[in-house]
Amino acid sequence: MGKLRRSRRVREERFTVLLLCQGVRTEHDYFRRLVSDKRIPGVRVQSDPLDPARLVHKAIQLNRDETYDAVFVIVDKDEFLPENLREARRKCEAASKPASKKGVGGVQYRLVVTIPCFEAWLTAHVEEVRSPYTVQQVQRKAAELRLVDARKKKYLAEDFPLHNWQIARRNLPEVSYGQFDLSAGTSVGHLVWYLQEVVHSNLDNRAKVEKIDENGSGAPRPK
What we know:
Helices cover 42% and strands 12% of the residues. It has 223 residues and is α/β, with parallel strands linked by helices.
């Protein structure tokens, strides 16, 4: 019985993260592979092709019982109107609540936007992305660079260079969570940093929550 109580306590204390992707293939495949390859504990990857505001609403519903300590909703700016993205950002802010002084409870929601689309982040793993490309141009470039599967262009190539994520941070302008007002940029690099350097660390849960925005404004820049 003592062992059972101890195992339950360990499970309850584990820091958990939900990644809800708008892209049911490219984004989902990228984060699923990242979490698996880096063996990042406590992270669940799901996807649903909804507009940003509705996707945030779904994330909140999925976390009704506060199973997750942090929820990241990953979307493209794409063709969505600024009003929709602003609503998604407001929903994230409204749903977030701090933990108690003892570090109990609380949950944080963040909107992770790539401009114009996730393929810009993929392309940045091998070359600089600065110009205001259209979605079609960025997707074509990712295919030309063989970053996506030649036959299934919405899936990552088998040999996609995940390890180049720090290079990608230099090659594509970084924006804060919820920001979408540049012609090209992303906050995915902040999230990847957070998953690898904070979630996959020995910090206690409270410290992990406190660092959730450090990667948005004060994360160590790749050298």
